[in-house]
Structures are given as structure tokens and as C-alpha cells.
Amino acid sequence: MGLLVVAAALAGGVAWVALGFMPIRDGATGAFAAWSQTPARSTFTTRRALPDSSWPMFGGSPARTRFAPSELRPPFRLRYAIPGGGGLIEMPPAVALGRIVFGTHRGFVVASSLESGRELWRTRLGTCIASSPAVRNGIVYLGWAGTAPCQRKKDREGGVVALDLVTGRVLWKYHTGNVESSPAIVGSTLYFSAFRTRHDSTVYAMRLGRDRRMLCSLRVGSKIASSPAVIGSTLYVSAYDRHLYALDSSTCALRWKTSAFDNDLSTRLLLGVRSLVKKGSWTETGYYATPAVAYQRVFLGTIDGVFTAFDAHTGQPRWSRQLGGSVYGSAAIWHEVVYVGTTDGVFHALSARTGREFWKRDLGGGISGSATVTNRRVYVATFARETFALNARTGAIEWRFPDGRYSPLVVAGKRAVLVGMGTIYGLVNGSRATTWQAS
After folding, report:
1. Beta strand residue intervals within 45-157, DSSP E
2. Number of domains present in the structure of the chain
3. Per the domain annotation, does 7 fall within a domain?
4. For residues 396-408, b (16+ Cβ closer than 10 Å) or e, as one string?
5. Residue 6 lies in a domain
6. Is residue 434 part of a domain?
7. Collapsing DSSP states into helix, strand and coil, what is residue 180?
8. Of 11, 53, 101, 290, which sits most exposed with the smallest number of CB within 10 A?
9. Model confidence at 151, in pLDDT bands (50, 70, 90)?
10. Computed over its alpha carbons, how large is the radius of gyration of the chain?
11. For residue 254, what are the β-bridge partners?
12. Which domain covers residue 41, as residue numbers?
């Protein structure tokens, strides 16, 4: 009987992959809090708490909504290019105290002047860096995962390192296992996650300062490569087991966990078969992307290609939408619109209220990174090694740049700091009659 169930699941899974069927949970109706936890409010709160930073962490704030107000607009003029030393720059930099700081797959942490692009220091850690820095009070916090250069298969070595923002000197290291997670900072607490195997991860909350110590942690029986999002007293983190977890940010106690999918045996079997057929692994699907939190909802997409809005208080799905490709990047949010790209090269603008699609744009290259929204434009990079500026209302292409792969750019006052494959570019507003060029 058991063999018949497995055989039926395998047959159903193959048919499911062919037909594109997905066993998505029904969304429940609920009020939409347009006035609450807006991206603009999250950015303002973060800048008030960290006044020396224009982009202090991945997503621009602990809510990870990737919005920042600015007067930046294309076409841009290229002011400088900062080489990464030959290694891939997978994750965007942080910008604080007039310094751009980032890590590379070859194990270097680099800080350069925001004004001139001049390199200020370069520290070789010799470890794989696939994490964005977080900066607080002149200290850089960064995750590492195994040895450099980065490999697909990780060992159990990894952790978080702290460096002096002015000198690049390593202040301390904390060993946890692989950290691909980009740390978040709220007050004096550093939040991050680490994985040792595909079935063993831990979420951490660390008190910073002279009395640095681990406040709490929670063990999860799945791989966590995503970054924690924190808003209010709740921390949200997603895992490869297709679950979104909500924790108390002070105690790490689990409040709830949820999923876009049903949790019965047949669904789990079908999802596993789909992963095996499409990715060659029973566990290579689920949530890789980082949650983004706004309007009392948590927005998150899966490698399976399903994008969902969850109630931030209960975890109940409000709506889900099946997209064409896999979702690896965190969503960007602005004016009740959620922006997300997929590996099939299509970039989507969805209603935060209902999931209705406002527009979509095929950009001709797979999208794996997270977008950024500023000044009525949304920026996105593709595997075709291009970065685009799209009109956030219509999706029209307003500008393109011949470099990029994962993350497009971060906002630093009057500078757009664009992330190429192995180079960081400093851009300023140019004249309407010009395209990008070196000054």
C-alpha cells in the first residue's frame, strides 16, 4: 500500500510539473492596514535610529522593504568605479559615515569613499561572503559561509565578524555555521541566522556593545539562508521547509509558523517530487527569499514560484499568486505595490492588497536579486548582466546600465551606488540629453 502511495505521488508529481498545478492554500479575507508599517515609515524610523547611515543594512531597514526617498533619476552620470578585486559581489553594500562597505566571494571586505570612490581599506577574511553588511556606531557586522572562493556546497564553518568601519580591523568573530543571512540591527540587538546542514539552522539575537552576549536563539530543522526581518516585537524568517516563522524578537520564542501550501502528507510528497524533477534535489525548493514587512503583512516568494501575502499577526495567507519562475529575491514595496522578479526574467508589480497584477515586464534575463524603489522608479538587475530603471507605475523601461547580476543599487543621498558583477559604481543625476558616461 505504501509503495502505491509513493508511486502515485511520483506520477502525480511529474504530471503536476508538466501542468503547472500548485496546491496553494486559500487566502482569507482581512483588513488591509494601508496606514500601518509603511515602507516610508520603516525607512524614517531606521534613519532616525542610525543617523550616520544612508543605507545601513540589507533592504535599507529591518523591515526589508527596499524603499528610500531621494531625488535620484536617470539618466545617470558615472562618477567612479570601485573594483571588487576579481570576486563576484553577490549582495549590496551598506553605506554609513560616508563609506561604502561590501564583501566579495573571494573573501575581501572593502570600504571606499562615498564622495570619491577611493578605496579606504581592504581586509582579507579568506571566507565566502554572500551577505550584506549591517553598520552601527562605526562597526561593520557581516556574515560568512565557508572558505573563499564561494562554493555551492558549504561546510559547517561560518559565522559573523565585526570590523572597524574606519580602519577595517577585525574586532571579533562568532562561529555559528554558515551565515548567508544578512544581519539586521534594531537598537542594540543584532539578528541573523546560520545553517549547518539542510536540516539544521539557528536564528540568533545578539546584544551588541561592551556587554556583548547572545540574548536568545531558536533551532529550526531546515536550512535557513534568508535574512531576518524585524518590525515591532516580531522577527520573521523563512526556511527551505516552505515555512515562514514568526519569533518574539526579545526571547526568540516561536509565535507561529505558516506556509503558502497545505501541510498534509500528499502535498509534502508532491512538493518533494516537484523539487526532485525541477531542481534535482528533494529539498531544493521552499523559501530562500527574505521576508518584506509592510501594511501588517509579510510578503514572500518561494523557489516553487508562489508569491504570498501573509497576515503579520497570525500568519494566515491573505492572497497568493503563482508566478512563472522561481523567486529568490526579496520584494521591494512602495505605495501599496509589491515588486518582485523571477528566474524566467519577468518582473512583476502586484497589488499589496489583493495580489492583482498591475503590470509585468520581460527583461530578457533571469532575475535572482532584490529590487530597489526610489523616486517613482524601480531598479532591477538580471543574469544578462544589465541593470534597469523601470517606471514604477507603468513598468516602462526608462534606463539601462551594462553591468549587474543580483542586486541593482542602494540609495545614498545624492548618489546611486550600483552593484555590478565585480564592480561598485557611483552614479549621480545626469542631464536629460545624455546617457551614462564617465565624468
Report:
1. 53-55, 76-83, 94-96, 99-103, 108-113, 119-124, 134-136, 139-145
2. 1
3. no
4. eeebbbebbbbbb
5. no
6. no
7. coil
8. 11
9. confident
10. 21
11. 247
12. 31-429
- The CA-atom distances, in angstroms, between 177 and each of 96, 183, 200, 208 are 27, 14, 10, 20
Degrees (nearest 5) of the Cα angle 390, 396, 398? 55
Neighbour tally for 60: CB within 10 Å: 29
- Distance, CA of 177 to CA of 361 (rounded, Å): 38
**For residue 437, is pLDDT > 60?**
no
Amino acid (one-letter) located at 279: K
CB 427 within 8 Å of CB 415: yes
124: CATH: 2.130.10.10
Q: Which three three-digit cell numbers place residue 141?
A: 557586522
Residues 6+ apart with CB under 8 A from 86: 106, 422
| Bridge partners, 362 (sequence order) | 346
Residue 4 lies in a domain: no
pLDDT category of residue 283 using cuts at 50, 70 and 90: low
Contact 136, 56 (CB under 8 A): yes
| Residues β-bridged to residue 428 | 77
Find out whether 60 and 68 touch, Cβ atoms under 8 Å. Answer: yes
Q: DSSP string of 186-219?
A: ETTEEEEEEEEETTEEEEEEEE-STT-EEEEEEE
Q: pTM of the entire structure?
A: 0.91
> pLDDT tens digits for 385-423?
999 999 999 999 999 999 999 999 999 999 999 999 999
Residue 439 has a pLDDT of 32
Residue 438 has pLDDT above 50, yes or no: no
